[in-house]
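Fold these two proteins, one after the other.
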Amino acid sequence: MGRFTQGIFRSLAPSSRDRHSRRLYKFWPAILLAMVVLLTIIAALQYRWTTEVTDAKEFRVGREVESRMIQWHLDLYGEFSAICIALQVGPDSGAHDSWSDYLQRYIKWSRGDQNKNSPINLYRNPDLVENVYVWETSRKVPRLWRLNAQTGTIDSASVRPDLSRALDRLQKHSANLAVALRAWQSADRDRDTNEMSGTASLRSSAITGWQFDESVPLIAHPEVRNSDSTPVDWIVIQFDRKTIRARILPTLVRRYFGGPIGLDFNVAVVATGNPTRIIYSSVAGFGSQDADAYDSVMNLFGPPPESLEGQFWQTIKNSEALESEQWRSFSAPVWFPTIEYGAADSSWMLVVQSRHGPLQAVVGRVRRQNLAISALVLLLLAFNMGIAAVAGFRAQRFADLQMNFVASISHELRTPLSVLHAAAENIKDGVALRHGKLESYGSLMMSQTRQLMSHVDRILLYASIRSGKTHYNMRVLEVSEIIQRVEIATAELMKESKCTLVQNVEPELPCVCGDLYALCSCLENLITNAVKYSGKDRDVSISAVHCRTAHGQDEVRISVKDRGVGIEHSELANIFEPFYRSPAANAAQIHGTGLGLFVAKHVAEAMGGRLSVTSEVGVGSVFTLQLQARHPGTMNSQPLDHQRQEVL
């Protein structure tokens, strides 16, 4: 029964284990492919998210810049239009207001006599207004009057050279109100479209109807003295260019583009044309570059208002309508109609650039930082997934090795136990006595007991190695003593296997330091493997030579050589791992636990040496135990790091 069950175990267990392992390993390519696909999807999503975050960052920055520019512009428009509101000029106000009425309003506004909470005082800057004129073009001979707020009089004034072109333009468009309201248009503009649009609002707004001349600068408004079909006069307000450049513009720039430690942006107001004029610049030289060099450009001369209330609502709508790249170049939401003189007309442009570099470059840096962070996170994720995959694979492989070990050790233990059980049964039944084989039965039982003890000792040694509690009794040993003990211990194995142990030991070898039992066990394991894997040539040789290393150290090399099946080159890195069994050995049903070489390598290293192997398939293998030599004259003078009770 024992032989029958043993045969069943030998024939069935390895194949079933192999089938189970193959089924498990089939899943790993699918798992790795799923990981690669998952990483690819995550990488694509991260790139998409990074792009969206960068676009959102750019849009937010653009909206912030655009909002600052529009608020800056609205305040500038408020500064220019404050005097218009104070004078209360309308297209038909001349029918009931005299020039003295306008003078009194001008004086009152200049002195700040209005209610402090009045909207008129919100942008009150009397220094901004250089002169207020009345240009009477309804007469046959036009006359120019100046409203003097200091003396409270209306003085006759001569036409200054800087006003002559603007006043001449107003005189030519004073035939009636309809013509006067379009005095700002150039001769080549189509005058037939929307000729009288917005008449009601023009008559009800204190802002609408004013026309702007950027070259002076000034604003003018027509005054109807009799009816809409009669010639009109003009209220002309000239602004102080120095006040605009030195006080108004710098104050607005600090208000909307300033930061905790100065300006966040370089700002300039540039008059386009030939040549380009810099009206104001926060930094010397800024504003002379091409338009593409700025972060954002706004044309201050926006569309003319239809009404005060409607235009402020339109301003809010326009500020929310700018999307994507439109904030880089756009027109202001509202401005006075600008008098056009021809192709050489210029516009005032507000140009802005971040002091930390172009906003495009800043957004690009943010994009690169986000991509770098995403790539780092992805690499960390890939690394962790790789570690998890490797750990899972190693765990699966280790589990397979453990299962193989359990099956192998069960068989290795079962064989001697079965033999012992059969021998004991025969002795009990008197079979051994009747045939006179009691002595041979005793030798058989001793051999199997020794084999059983060897397996148990190897397992216990592996357990002690893993737990770090292995102890070695280190002393100086003769190489011949070691080899002699090994020969005696393996004599029975060599006899049963019909193998020959050939010795080739150099005479007068130096001594080595180690644990006699551990070194003998190491060499016995190597000889046992040589016997198991030997081919038709049943000779196993053991040799010992004295060598000098490249570093000048003396060592003794004890080699065990067989002429067996050999080991594949790809398996040499794995044979010293615990539980590892060669697939060829499993297929050939060569029994073993997979612990022998692991224990042998550990013993060699614990003795201060090393265990190496060279092998060729079909030729055989050579395992070499290399130990440091100890000459008689140096054994007491040199410290031996390994000449102690080693605890691993």
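Now the second one:
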Amino acid sequence: MLRVAAAHGRRRTVSTCWRRGAFSRHLSSHPSLAVGDPAHVPETVPATKLVDFEGRLLVLGLGSIGMGTLPLLLKHIGMSASQVIVFTGDDRADEAAQVEAAYPGLCTKLGWVTEDNYNETLEAATGGMAKGDFLLNLSVDVASCSLLEWCAERGVNYVDTVVEPWLGRYTDPNLTPAERTNYAMREEAIALKKRLGPSSATAVITHGANPGMVNHFVKRALLNIREKQTGTALVTPSTREGWAELAQTVGVRAIHISERDTQVQGVPKKVGEFVNTWSIDGFIGEGCQPAELGWGTHEKQLPPKGRRHEAGSRAAIYIERPGASTRVRTWTPSEGPFHGWLITHNESMSISDFLTLPAGSGYEATYRPTVHYAYHPCDDAVLSLHEFAGKNWELQPNKKLIVEEIVSGIDELGVLLMGTDAQGEHFAYWYGSQLEIEQARRLVEFNSATSLQVTAAAMAATVWAMRNPSCGILEPEELPHDEILDVMAPYIAPVIGEYTEWTPLDGREELFAEDVDREDPWQFKNIIVE
């Protein structure tokens, strides 16, 4: 069933396709939205056309992300609204009418996409798609791999924000915990990538805010750390191995995708109501999956109930407990230290796999950082999560996605790189976006601070895929980070980098004895909240 996910001048850039383990690079000149200083917060963004598009664009899903992405696509892609078809569930009829009124010529169609009907449903909705057309998948509960094959057969380009399964897989009691992991779903997408080959229609997968934007932040953060350590800006790595060697050289041991959402609505959350700033169905689904993390080579022991995978990249592990009941210690500049939830996300696997030495060496690797999400949603979502868990994971009868209801707050989302340098000094460096709700609304209609970080990333990936239509299936790490972030820049500002002296051992054992590792603060046993 299709269910709606609610989930930034011209300069010389490098476009990149992943080829047999290395980057095949060609210089190209493209329009950009780069603003110079990423911390600069613009009042407006010019309607620069970043790419011309002559085909048809099918947008699947009209939740908060679908609603928020449409104005960006029509502003920055050279096309008319009449080229766009939006297909969404019957429950989004009001939103469909709203976008048709806002963008004359745009066509919306209502219905449900299921495992049994997706082929004929998409054919009927579009009249058939072919090479030169584009599918932007912003739905939930529609299997990404099925759509990837459907697009590849027709030469249609594709972008999504998550490797999604068909409805029910996240919580299917007949599947083992390992079969319900994002690791397993990513491995299916990688197998399809290998089968289709590097010259099939470009399909950028998992390219929202996280995964997506944050994967590019990791590269920027690594370069910034190296420049601080060496005092010089060296050549940017051009291969997967080069990035992994850079992370190893500067001493990175752990990476958090660290997020604190402080957005609030003007009325209290009601009992029996799940409130969130993005897709409630999406949050519930991933929260009920096992907690997952990329597993670093510096780690001395598995966490309680930690399990290794028997096949695939073996760059990650999972914990036999829901991510929605697993908390970790982390840090952001505005909040300082806090407890976040270890919610499974694709970037935990893809970043750790990308930074593995030797590449593809699994649990026998000589270097890999631990990577995971550390998420503190808006306070109403925290209350909702507590209520949800207290009912033994039975969802509240009412759901409330807040966008227009938000009265203040920011979504502080970035990457926290932690490690120990060659001199034995510990460091932690956060790099990310501190987008504020009023700034998001000022720049793009139908958006909040949470959604705009996703919609800007989806737009940037769509632009890149249109510019590079025959590169096969690609993960965010395989795209040129500077080109993507230059497109996103004005929409996610301010973007800042900040060092901190915080470690997960700060303030520990003052009242009670704890089992901590004081020799290495970056051990996961120090980070997980038992």
